[in-house]
Design a protein that fits this description.
Shape: globular
Number of helices: 7
Helix content: over 70%
Structural class: mainly alpha
Distance between the termini: 25 Å
Largest sheet: none
Radius of gyration: 20 Å
């Protein structure tokens, strides 16, 4: 992978997909515990879909459905593992299926960034921030709005009815935590991307120098 040719070969694509799938399963299923007072590592699903869009932009036909199926599978396993009915769970309302367009917004945000990626420059850092915030914001708006208006679980528990003012307050209450967490995971991925790109570039440089000495 280089700045002028950012495409990944099939083995690299499969490797990246496997790593991201493992990260999503581990965090979405709360498999990584950080300690009694901290709890489990937060769900990285939003960042996974954004990062997948960046690295697997040309594989959307199989990678996006596979990740969606994996996300639903993890939810089913976690809920069923607690002895609860998946279809009766408060998280699985008609709004649950809006996760598809929500996660699609994240994927295409990453794909948009990939299309404009031209190496490790300050410009790319700005584009990363803009695309990640925009994609996560659209995802949040769709997922939060669909749950607020289409799920009656929270309304019954709180003893209130949905209203536009109530939705605006709910949006404001949870916006920064969701966006902030996504940006933290994306920032970690960006650091790893820089390190990997520089390492691969150094290896390529040593290989070229070795060939010239022969």
């Amino acid at each position: 992978m280089t700045a002028t040719n950012p495409s990944l070969s099939t083995p690299w694509r499969l490797g990246v997909f496997a790593i991201l799938a493992i990260v999503m399963v581990a965090t979405r299923a709360n498999l990584i515990h950080l300690g009694t007072h901290i709890g489990s590592l937060p769900d990285a699903s939003w960042a996974v879909f954004f990062i997948s869009g960046f690295y697997l932009r040309g594989s959307v036909r199989w990678a996006f459905p596979a990740l969606m199926a994996l996300a639903v599978g993890v939810d089913y396993a976690v809920i069923s593992g607690q002895g609860l009915s998946f279809w009766s769970h408060y998280c699985v309302s008609p709004a649950y299926w809006f996760l598809v367009p929500s996660y699609a917004a994240l994927w295409f945000g990453g794909a948009w960034l990939r299309q404009r990626y031209d190496g490790l420059h300050a410009r790319e850092l700005g584009l990363l921030l803009v695309s990640a915030v925009a994609a996560a914001s659209v995802c949040y708006l769709v997922s939060n709005g669909s749950y607020y208006w289409l799920s009656n679980h929270w309304q019954a528990a709180a003893g209130v009815t949905a209203s536009f003012g109530g939705w605006m307050k709910n949006l404001g209450d949870w916006y920064l935590p969701f966006i902030g967490l996504t940006l933290v995971y994306v920032a970690i991925a960006a650091v790893l991307h820089v390190l990997a790109t520089r390492a691969l570039g150094a290896m390529a440089g040593h290989g070229t120098a070795g060939e010239q000495r022969r």
